[in-house]
Amino acid sequence: MHMSSWDHFILVVLSMLVALGPRLLPMKFFTTRKIPEWFNEWMKYVPVSLFTALVVKDLFINSKIYTFVGFEYVAKLLAAVLVVIVAYKSRSMGLSVVCGLVAVALLTMVVPG
């Protein structure tokens, strides 16, 4: 099936609406309500825990066969240690991500995997 330019446009608009819904509806709902302080405190940890879950999954689980990996991912492990050090020292998520990307790119060229 071949899609025309109009079909692509409709697809982009519908995708935008689907992506906007989960962002706009909670914002509209919570602007009129008082959010409890315990919820705000708890929400501070959500980005860190999600980021950690993604990184740990990528480092230690082979998603092709869903088994734990051994030391064949040495470059990623070394980059992870470097990112932990950079994140601890700088407290900057952006700097940590950039350092991690550069470290993985350089280490995969050097360390056999």
UniProtKB/TrEMBL annotation:
Record key words, sorted: Membrane, Transmembrane, Transmembrane helix
InterPro entries from the UniProt entry: Brnchd-chn_aa_trnsp_AzlD
Bilayer-spanning residue ranges: 68-88, 94-111
Transmembrane found in the keyword field: yes
Record keyword Transmembrane present: yes
Name of the protein: AzlD domain-containing protein
Organism field: Candidatus Ligilactobacillus excrementigallinarum
Lineage: Bacteria, Bacillati, Bacillota, Bacilli, Lactobacillales
